[in-house]
Amino acid sequence: MRRVAKLSAACIASAALALTATACGSTSSDNDSGSSSSGDGKGVKIGLAFDVGGRGDRSFNDSAARGADKAKKEFGGEIKELTAKTSDTEADREQRLSDLAEAGYNPVIGVGYAYAASMTKVAAKYPKTSFGIVDSVVNGTNVDSITFTEEQGSYLAGVAAALKTKTKHVGFIGGVDVPLIKKFEAGYVQGVKDTNPKIKVDTQYLSHGSDTSGFASPDKGKEAAQGMLDNGADVIYTAAGSSGNGAIEAVAGKKGAWAIGVDSDQYNIPGLAKYKNAILTSMVKNVDVGVYDFVKSVHDGKPLSGTNSYSLAKDGVSLATSGGFIDDLQNKLDDAKKKIIDGSIKVKTTP
Questions:
Q1: Phi and psi (nearest 5°) for 266?
Q2: Between 225 and which of 182, 211, 250, 293 could a Cys-Cys bridge form, CB atoms 3.0 to 4.6 Å apart?
Q3: Is 257 helix (H, G, I), strand (E, B) or coil?
């Protein structure tokens, strides 16, 4: 994998982003490619800077993609996608956002907290472009910070896990041990323990610090889940992007074990269809709604800015009911949801 090269003066003068990515020798993703879908020349030109894994991760990035796809279908226009690499530096992320803004894409959306620092710089350089960032807060009059109460949805996942486990032993796998993913862990563990304090909870992270490979390593996810299963866990919740696909595969191979998906309703993801009967539920984070709302606001000439939080009360997060596997738990889950919304239950954001 090559690091993104600094654009030459000739490249900056180029009006075509495709030429920037080829003639100037820069890379936009692990496979050195971006993708674009054209509309009718009207509508909106959406620039999507994906996190590692990109479109097709069956989780976080795919949820963002659904929001952009819906907006394109409704308003017309086009989408340009560039995807992060696990080897990205701040300069790489800044270049990716700048490429999209320079090529006239508006809005430009950074999918993931890793774009926070770079977006702070790039948004200031392009004040007439509307920027959106998912899962982080960036100060700027032209930035919409799209955030979610992951801990609240994860609390409900913990309640479901506690009520379904037969071994009184469950697990949590996080992609990277960063504050965002710690919110998933905190809510999940609290939900488990509030339901039954005697249940054992194993936790494991696939990568650490600036190493984001934990979000795009299904083999690591599978290995971690298998280890937990071998140690007696029978319900495993994974918040790790495409790495979660490997965890779900491992769980599906163990009779009586359950996986809890994340971000998208993974029971209904075609690429995971052969494992769906092992997916108890998914903690759905409606990134698609946040992305769509932002694009619509730009299309309507009233771009959202500031921090827009999608909470449990606003259905920003929820538990999927596909498969009917938590139908028998619904009364208890509804009770927990009500208590979170009315403040009777305060969900932690750190373990």
A1: -70, -15
A2: 250
A3: coil
Q: Is 145 helix (H, G, I), strand (E, B) or coil?
A: strand
pLDDT on residue 90: 96
Which tokens is 149 given?
A: 């109460």
Helices (H) then strands (E): counts for the chain: 11, 13
Give how far Cα 108 sits from Cα of 46, 47, 229, 257, 285, Å. 6, 4, 41, 41, 20
d(C-alpha 323, C-alpha 278), whole Å: 10
For the chain, list residues with pLDDT below 70.
1-41
Q: Which residue has the tokens 């539920």?
A: 281
The edge-to-edge listing of strands for the beta sheet with 131-134 is 35-37, 77-83, 44-50, 108-111, 131-134, 143-148, 306-310
Domain 150-285+321-342 has CATH 2.60.260.20: no
CA–CA gap between residue 143 and residue 135 (Å, rounded): 13
Instruction: Supply angle C-alpha 123, 296, 46, rounded to 5.
Output: 55
Q: Where are the domains of the chain?
A: 9-148+288-310, 150-285+321-342
Predicted pLDDT at 28: 35
What's the helix, strand, coil split of the chain in %, to 5?
45, 20, 35
Q: What is the pLDDT of residue 42?
A: 72
pLDDT at 26: 29
Both tokens assigned to 267: 């029971």
| Interatomic CA distance for residues 248 and 162, integer angstroms | 18
CA-to-CA distance for 185 and 203, rounded, in angstroms?
8
* Residue length of the chain: 351
Ramachandran bin of 205, using left for φ above 0, alpha for ψ from -120 to 50, beta for the remaining angles = beta
* Tokens, residue 195: 């339901």
Residue type, position 113, single letter:
Y
- The distance in angstroms from the start CA to the end CA of the chain is 35
0.70 surpassed by pTM:
yes
Residue 287 host element (H or E): helix 287-299
Check whether domain 9-148+288-310 has CATH 3.40.50.2300, yes or no: yes
* CA proximity to 20, closest of 95, 86, 91, 90: 95
Identical topology for domains 9-148+288-310 and 150-285+321-342: yes
